[in-house]
Amino acid sequence: MTxxxxxxxxxxxxxxxxxxxxxxxxxxxxxxxxxxNYEVGSGVLEGxxxxxxxxxxxxxxxxxxxxxxxxxxxxxxAALRYKKNGWQAALNVSNLFDKTYYSTCYEAGSNKDLSCxxxxxxxxxxxxxxxx
Length: 132
Description:
By secondary structure, the chain is mostly beta strands. The protein has one domain. 0% of the residues lie in helices and 54% in strands. It contains no helices and ten strands. The chain has strands spanning 2-7, 30-39, 48-57, 60-61, 69-70, 73-84, 87-94, 102-108, 113-118, 123-130. It has a six-stranded antiparallel β-sheet, with no helix packed on it. A two-stranded antiparallel ribbon has the order 4-5. It is elongated and about 65 Å long. The model has no long low-confidence stretch (mean pLDDT 94).
């Protein structure tokens, strides 16, 4: 099992006077992750491993004025792997439950129009490798 947590107390210290002391845009205060993996050590399924985990990205601001709130989100990922005789086949799925979320928001252009970008839906990746 692997766990991680980040607390980041970021602050703008040098810029236009009206944003000094604000949190920088697109910088969450909290991030965390948890991952568990189980590998079969013997028997007919020896070499098979299954893993699952969650990633949390906390709320942030989409602008340096701290007026545009970007909500935090949690994503669940999973993995399946099989190793035998130097070969490995793996299947990984990110955002397993198709969570809809904003990956970021920002102000753009001279009018400071707000633009938000949705995060990716489920992404499935497969691989086959050999060690020699």
